[in-house]
Specification:
Helices cover about 60% and strands about 10% of the residues. With about 120 residues, it is mostly helical.
């Protein structure tokens, strides 16, 4: 089976430009060192508090995590839930249904990453 990218419509300069723009938009929203890691942990763990989330992502600082969560919340990937009726106040983060639409992308990236790692090891 041949591995080719199939895009909607004929391969025109306009279609190529639109596809590049769409990929650029996606990378802008979920790109960087931490965003996908945060999304993966949230999808895996469900409701999770800030410190637990930080413990599950080695190397991320509290400041960076806080900023990334704000960005992800603005883009609809994360919901921040404040339980003000409890003492102390508890804040939890959960992945949204929209965030879960990334699951096939994450699985594909994971599979590709494993294949790539094997290829690199074989080449050396």
């Amino acid at each position: 089976m041949e591995n080719t990218l199939e895009f909607e419509g004929p391969a025109t300069a306009q279609a190529c430009s639109e596809n590049l723009s769409a990929v650029e938009d996606a990378i802008y929203v979920i790109g960087g060192k931490w965003k996908l890691k945060i999304i993966i942990v949230l999808q895996d763990k469900g409701n999770i508090r800030f410190n637990d989330l930080q413990r599950n992502i080695p190397g991320i600082s509290a400041r960076v995590l806080s900023n990334e969560l704000k960005d992800l919340e603005l883009n609809g990937f994360v919901k921040r839930v404040v339980h003000a009726d409890q003492t102390p106040v508890i804040v939890e983060y959960i992945s949204t249904d929209y965030s879960r639409t990334l699951k096939p992308v994450i699985i594909a990236l994971s599979q590709w990453g494993k294949t790539h790692k094997r290829k690199i090891k074989e080449d050396f």
